[in-house]
């Protein structure tokens, strides 16, 4: 397993690669060109500059999260082939730079959702939180407004402002798209990009839907064990795999995360490891990474990754906001750095406790 840390680039992040370099065990960043829009072709010079920036701090680019997918591809509108061509060009440019891991999602219109970005905990830290009673009593615009007002001026990863401005039009294009159709569209996309992925050895790692259920009536197809297996069977081959995000899948207590990890041996290309605390039906807070702070057994999770021989990139995921830090919601330095120390400690314990 290779420990990595998400970094949004000098222009958007409060954290520097030099700081990341000092977190024990971290060898690389997971990053993106955060000011490109879904569908845009990435400039070669911009990719090279990003890589050089990470390398200047002694880090590699371990993967891209994300090369976002244009809604025309997800909804199969007439422009989808053009956007797929653009995506292929971007992949080949990344491949030329030796970047061989790409995380993406196939959630219609928007990425992850929460009802609160800074819920106060008894210890004085704040966390991202989801309460279905709040979300289901809002329409999409109200939710956008509410998240925007709570983000303290920081961009929300995955919520591109330009895309959000088109949200009405975007909801329209998904009329008539159910889960079956959405999965077909994903298959069409994956079949088209697999040749370039195989040429460069680029592992495509789909991110699960977050939370793991449909929100605002939009179809969602990466929620549980069966969805993940449908995805890997959709297009066989070494480059089609998953991002095993314990927090997204873990939002549904019906998902047995260690069992899902074991069932996907060889198909997990990337891991996001974090904890969640269940508060009731479709209600949860994000927690510190520590098992006892939430509802997931983090030791069993790390053991499952170890047992299947997972050697790919792993990163800590959303942290609490602690010690007065101000940063993108979920993406402060301190709690994620604590998280990575804990995860690498668990891994050492698993490794030493497993007979060879
Ligand atoms: C949230 C992230 C997601 C993830 C995308 C992948 O914090 O885990 O935004 O990056 O869904 O495309």
Tell me the number of helical segments per DSSP (H or I, 4 or more residues long).
Answer: 14
Strand content: 15-25%
Classification by helices and strands: alpha/beta
By DSSP, the count of extended strands is 12
Q: What is the total number of structural domains?
A: 1
Description:
The protein is an alpha/beta fold and 356 residues long. The protein has a single domain, classed as TIM Barrel (Alpha-Beta Barrel). It contains 14 helices and 12 strands. It has an 8-stranded parallel barrel, surrounded by 4 helices. A 4-stranded antiparallel sheet has the order 5-6-11-10. Helix 4 packs parallel to helix 9, helix 12 packs parallel to helix 13 and helix 13 packs across helix 14. The chain starts with a strand and ends with a helix. The model has no long low-confidence stretch (mean pLDDT 95). Bound molecules: D-mannose. D-mannose binds next to strand 4.
Present the secondary structure layout.
Layout (H helix, E strand, L loop, with lengths): L1 E5 L10 H5 L4 E6 L12 H13 L3 E6 L5 H5 L4 H17 L4 E4 L11 E5 L5 E6 H4 L4 H11 L10 H5 L1 H7 L5 H22 L2 E4 L18 H10 L5 E6 H4 L7 H7 L4 E6 L2 E5 L2 E4 L11 H10 L5 E4 L17 H20 L3
Parallel strand pairs: 1-2, 1-12, 2-3, 3-4, 4-7, 7-8, 8-9, 9-12
Antiparallel strand pairs: 5-6, 6-11, 10-11
Bound molecules: D-mannose.
């Amino acid at each position: 397993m290779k420990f990595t840390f998400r970094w949004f680039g000098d222009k958007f992040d409060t954290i520097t690669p030099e700081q990341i370099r000092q977190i024990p065990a971290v060898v690389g960043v997971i990053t993106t060109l955060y000011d490109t829009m879904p569908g845009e072709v990435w400039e070669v010079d911009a990719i090279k500059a990003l890589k050089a920036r990470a390398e200047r701090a002694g880090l590699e680019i371990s993967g891209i999260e994300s090369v976002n997918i244009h809604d025309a591809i997800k909804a199969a509108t007439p422009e989808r082939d053009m956007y797929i061509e653009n995506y292929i060009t971007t992949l080949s440019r990344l491949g030329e730079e030796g970047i061989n891991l790409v995380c993406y999602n196939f959630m219609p219109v928007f990425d992850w959702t929460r009802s609160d970005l800074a819920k106060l905990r008894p210890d004085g830290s704040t966390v991202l939180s989801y309460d279905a009673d709040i979300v289901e009593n809002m329409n999409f615009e109200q939710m956008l407004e509410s998240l925007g007002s709570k983000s303290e001026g920081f961009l929300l990863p995955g919520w591109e402002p330009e895309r959000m401005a088109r949200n009405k039009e975007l909801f329209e294009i998904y009329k008539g798209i159910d889960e079956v159709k959405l999965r077909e569209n994903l298959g069409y996309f994956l079949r088209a990009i697999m040749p370039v992925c195989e040429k460069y050895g680029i592992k495509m790692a789909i991110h699960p839907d977050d939370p793991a259920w449909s929100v605002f009536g939009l179809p969602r197809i990466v929620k549980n064990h069966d969805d993940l297996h449908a995805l890997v069977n959709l297009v066989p081959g070494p480059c089609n795999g998953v991002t095993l995000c314990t927090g997204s899948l873990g939002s549904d207590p019906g998902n047995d995360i260690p069992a899902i990890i074991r069932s996907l041996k060889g198909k997990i290309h990337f891991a996001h490891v974090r904890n969640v605390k269940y508060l009731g039906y479709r209600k949860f807070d994000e927690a510190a990474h520590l098992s006892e702070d939430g509802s997931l057994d983090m030791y069993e999770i790390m053991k499952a990754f170890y047992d299947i021989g997972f050697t790919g990139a792993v990163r800590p995921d959303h942290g609490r906001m602690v010690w007065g830090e101000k940063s993108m919601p979920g993406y402060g330095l301190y709690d994620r750095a604590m998280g990575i120390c804990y995860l690498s400690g668990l891994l050492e314990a698993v490794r030493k406790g497993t007979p060879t």
